[in-house]
Write a structure and sequence with these properties.
Peptide Deformylase, two-stranded antiparallel ribbon, about 30% strand, globular, binds nickel (II) ion
Length: about 170
């Protein structure tokens, strides 16, 4: 396993639409292992492949991390079959939008189909925080970030802040 670099906004790669995976092979599993390790190290609870620069429809999640207990979930080519009309609100952040948080409304429940780590076809009905995380990560596959749901003014302010932070970081590295 290896840590990968997490891309941060603004970055055009994050805006790419990811392409479906043709099947889960050893290379895909290696990528999922790396993504999981990168996510835990960040630390975060979800990561999409595009966030480490790979435009494939792959997501890893673990929303139940507790003292050494890990419950990783892998979603390859996830598709939403159905989502509820009821909305729920969580304060969201994103490893690609460091240090920024905002309340976002999303359907409270979603029913998805996907391939798991071994390439088996699966379905899942998720609700609450898991449903929100799945939808947040699935947005990444379309090149959408949570800040896209905010007003133009708020979004512009956040992007400006992130650009400034990036320049400062680059200065230190150099
Ligand atoms: Ni995110």
């Amino acid at each position: 396993m290896a840590l990968r670099k997490i891309l941060t906004e603004p970055n055009k790669i994050l805006r790419q639409k990811s392409i479906p995976v043709e099947g889960v092979d050893k290379d895909m599993q290696k990528l999922m292992d790396d993504m999981l390790e990168t996510m835990y190290a960040a630390p975060g609870i979800g990561l999409a492949a595009i966030q480490v620069g790979v435009p494939k429809r792959i997501i890893v999640l673990d929303i139940q991390q507790k003292e050494g207990q890990k419950n990783p979930l892998f979603f390859v080519n996830p598709e939403i079959i159905e989502k509820s009309k009821n909305l729920t609100t969580y304060e969201e952040g994103c490893l690609s939008v460091p240090g920024q948080f905002a309340e976002i409304d999303r359907p409270d429940q979603c029913h998805i189909k996907y391939l798991d780590y071994d390439g088996n076809k699966k379905e899942m009905k998720a609700e609450g925080m898991l449903a929100t995380c799945i939808q947040h990560e699935m947005d990444h596959l379309e090149g959408i970030l949570f800040i896209d749901y905010l007003s133009k003014l708020k979004k512009t302010m956040i992007i400006k802040k992130l650009s400034k932070q990036k320049k400062e970081l680059e200065r230190i590295v150099v």
